[in-house]
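Re: the 408-residue chain
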Amino acid sequence: MMKKVLTFIMAGGKGERLYPLTRDRAKPAVPFGGIYRIIDFTLSNCINSGLRRIYLLTQYKSASLQRHIRLGWNILPSELAQFIEILPAQQRIGDSWYLGTADAIFQNYYTVEMEQPDEVLILAGDHIYKMNYYNMIDFHREADADLTVGVVEMDKEKSTQLGVVEVDSVGRVTGFQEKPVKPRAIPAHPDKIYASMGIYVFKAKILAQVLEENAKNHNSTHDFGKDIIPQMLKSGLKVAAYNFIDENKHEAKYWRDIGTIDAYYEANMDLIQVDPIFNLYDKDWPIRTYQEQFPPAKTVFAGEEVAGRVGLVLDSIISGGSIVSGGRAQRSILSYNVRVNSFAEVYDSILMEGVNVGRYAKIKRAIIDKDVTIPQGIVIGYDLEEDRKRFHVTESGIVVVAKGTEIK
């Protein structure tokens, strides 16, 4: 029964590799896919899985995340003991803020004692995927595991970017490697690894024991992967691996850790393909979010008045309140209330809420954060050396213009 499960979502990450998108907000609050925030995908998985007792643990620059949750996720009836509740870092134990993922749960363990669940589900709030957590909880119960770790198959060469879970031939966890150069492959699949998804199901009574023990170890980083799993294995506790079952209904499993600007950009661009790997339009697995009251998106000017002045949107996502007024947007994502003015050109880019692209401006392979006005005739993404003088540019050549930047 789901009322016997208490869920924690880790939503306090700085997301330093996503800077400057995380300059003003926590990583789970970063906009994604036009109308969503990253946190919406984990929360939607919870609701679609039947989970109704959810705590979000916040710490770093959480104001926009808190506002988003208050406006868009106040959906569960408290009289039925259902909730989505934010737990900010409070220094409840000692004078330190959260020292790691395990310490974050330890500092809030009083909530577990209040709710008295049989299992505790711990999730990362910064990944893009669809998953029925109920199936993993069932697996955990049937295996009678003390801890079950969610894993996803990945190519071996990606191991240096991931936490790698080592398993034996019957699926029991035997070790954990953090971003190893020489990872241990999946038995019978020498070219594949099991990457940790940052998803854990604990027996509640076992979680209390291991967190108490870990808190006494002052040499620990207080991380579930690096510290808790090895600690449990050393103690002889049963740790099982649950192989990710994708609810996305595609042949290839879709799970993205969008921890870098390049990964974030690629995951957004996945959405605008003719047959996107990640399907936002699946009515059987809806992705919820908060949507402000904007009028419908529209395009204006068909080119009769002035040659080349055509409001045109091709192979793109365009959100409410946006107007493409005599400009062109192609293979791009336009969030709420974006305006692309006459003769402007936007290609392969992500424009967040309130971006205004001036006439004759040209933008290519760029991420423009909220409330940026692109002056008339400005060119971004065509000369990376010039762009580096004013903006953040990734190794692969994605130009990022920070929120509220004033461009001269």
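The chain has a mean pLDDT of 91.
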